[in-house]
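User: Could you check the structure of this?
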Amino acid sequence: MAKTMQWFLDKYGESHQNATNKLIHWVCVPSIMFSLLGLIYAIPFPVERSLFMNWAAVFLVFALLFYLRLSIPMFLGFIVVVGLMLLGNNAIFEAVGRNGGQLALISLIIFAVAWVGQFIGHKIEGKKPSFFEDVQFLLIGPAWLLHFIYKKIGLKY
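Assistant: Sure, the predicted C-alpha cells are below.
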C-alpha cells in the first residue's frame, strides 16, 4: 500500500491527542524546523552563502520533493513556510556578522530547548514520538500542523 499524506497525518495524529502535547507541538515543531535549517545553513558552503546558496536550501530541495510526492497543496504551502524560515535564518546570519558559528550556536540552543519541549509533551501524552517508528514522521510533524491551518481556511491538502 502506498502511503498517502492522509495516512501519514492520521498515523501521526494517533500519538498527538492530548491538548497540552498539541500546544507544545505548535511551538516546538516550527522551532525545531527553523533551528535545524539554521544548523544546516551554518555549514560552510563552496560559494558565498546567501538566501538560496547554502546547505539548508539544498536540503530543502529534497524535503520539498517528499511533500510534492504526497501532496501538491502541502508542497506549495511548504514553499512559503521554508522560504520564510530561510529568510529568518539568513537575517540571523547577517545580524551576527555572517558568522556561521554564531548562527549554529543560536540554532543549537533553540533546537535543544525545543526537543526538550517535545519530549515533555510526549511524556504528558504517554506515547513515544512517531519518528521512533518511522523517520519520515520528522517531515510529517510540520505537515500535521499545516494541515490544521489548511482545514481552518478551507483548503484541501
